[in-house]
Amino acid sequence: MNEQFKIREFKAVEATEAAFAALQLYENAVRAERTPEDPPKSVAAVKADWQSMPPFLQVRVWLVWDAAETAVIAQGFIAIVNTEENQHLAQVSISVLPVYRRQGIARTLLALIAAEAEAQNRRLLMGNTNGRVPAGELLMERLGGSRGLATHLNQLALADLDQSLLHSWLQKAPTAEFGLGWWEGPYPEDQLADIVALHEVMNEQPYDDLDVEAFHITGEQLRQIEANLAAQDVTRWTLYVQEKATGKLAGYTEMMFLPERPAVASQGDTGVFPEYRGKGLGRWLKAAMLARVVAERPSVHFIRTGNADSNAAMLKINREMGFQPYLSQAIWQVETAKVRAYLEAES
Predict the structure, then answer these.
(1) Closest by alpha carbon to 65, among 116, 14, 18, 111?
(2) For residues 15 and 306, what is the distance between their CA atoms, to the nearest angstrom?
(3) CA atoms within 13 A of residue 173's CA, in its CB half-sphere
(4) What is the pLDDT of residue 109?
(5) CA-CA distances (angstroms) from residue 63 to 16, 35, 70, 71, 202?
(6) Considering the entire predicted model, what is its pTM?
(7) Among 341, 342, 337, 346, which residue's Cα sits nearest to residue 125?
(8) 169 and 280 in contact (C-beta within 8 Å)?
(9) Which residues contact 120 (CB under 8 A, 6 or more apart)?
(10) Which residues touch 208 (CB under 8 Å, ≥6 apart)?
(11) Where are the alpha helices (DSSP H) in the chain?
(12) Average pLDDT, integer, range 194-207
């Protein structure tokens, strides 16, 4: 790496306003390459996100600065989820502004990340790439990594939404057996145990070749995630379906609204327990949520959602609704030992 560049560990709780301002410019430049239609984030939003990171995430971040140490030109981080599951795994990310690529910056950041993974006894590193930044896939291939899960960020233009289709799905809903319920913002405390169980349904989604264990979220972790959303002023809508005879939650869908991106809503989890599938609950949930977005959020013009390419059931529903591929993505994995071997061979 060019010796004129400076690497500094970034600690959000200690960072100055000037550091956050530089990080904001950097993050917006990265975002413009990946999702060029999106508006930039403010310094306040960037600061809120980093300073409210859920405590169950252990994160180390390094920023690469230009020679004058006024502009951030690259970033690397490693995130370790402190849970009973997946203690072999660390989430990693490296990004470099286009003009500074091929100068050894990614390799230098990778060395810091690998050292931290080894110190934490994490044998596997996992990270995301996308089709608009080919440098990510090239790096993973050089490291000997494997593409564990192919995904897409899919987008629905509400102007193209078939309202008659939505009406049809709502008309076919099994209302004799099930009812819909609604939460806006934090989950109700008196139902938190049932909501924790409801989130277990997401372990049914495809993982393809990823070396991961099912993640069993806790009520405390859900509250930590909610604190992060609240700090960013993100609004979360949760629509759930409940069996009338037993009162059991059968499935749910979520939508999130970011104040600085009013034209785009983010579709979060959608899941139905296996024993309730084949009854049209997924279509009902999706249709009811979209109908509410159209009625109550007129500023929203697009809905985006991430889907595994192998998730045939959810993709079928989304395609019927009009979702189209927006950005190709992949989750890669590589053994920490392979990364160490690569670094030693390049030294």
Answers:
(1) 18
(2) 32
(3) 21
(4) 97
(5) 14, 22, 12, 10, 33
(6) 0.94
(7) 337
(8) yes
(9) 58, 80, 90
(10) 148, 149, 150, 308, 310
(11) 17-34, 43-51, 105-119, 134-143, 163-171, 192-199, 219-231, 281-296, 312-321, 336-346
(12) 94
Please say whether the beta carbons of 129 and 330 come within 8 A: yes
Residue 345 CB contacts under 8 Å (≥ 6 apart), including other chains: none
Classify each residue of 72-106 as buried b or exposed e, where b means 16 or more C-beta atoms within 10 Å of its C-beta: bbbbbbbebbeeeebeebbbbbbbbbeebbebebb
Q: Please list the residues that pair with 79 across neighbouring strands.
A: 59, 91
184: which strand partners?
237
Q: Identify the bridge partners of residue 130 per DSSP, sorted by sequence position.
A: 329
Tens digits of residue pLDDT in 289-324: 999 999 999 999 999 999 999 999 999 999 999 999
Strand partners, 33: none
Question: What does the pLDDT look like over 106-123, one tens digit per residue?
Answer: 999 999 999 999 999 999
Tell me the C-alpha distance between 77 and 282, whole Å: 36
Which two three-digit tokens encode residue 40?
């930039």
* 275 dihedral zone (left: phi>0; alpha: psi -120 to 50; beta): alpha
**Read out DSSP for 209-245?**
T---PPP---HHHHHHHHHHHHHTT-EEEEEEEEETT
Instruction: Please enumerate in sequence order all residues whose Cβ is within 8 A of that of 153, keeping only pairs 6 or more positions apart, or say none.
Output: 304, 305, 306, 325, 326, 327, 329
Full strand arrangement of the beta sheet holding 72-81: 6-10, 57-65, 72-81, 89-96, 124-130, 324-335, 146-157, 302-308, 264-272, 249-257, 235-243, 178-184
Q: Which pair of tokens denotes residue 37?
A: 């239609």
Query: Among candidates 126, 248, 144, 135, which has minimal Cα distance to 193?
Result: 248
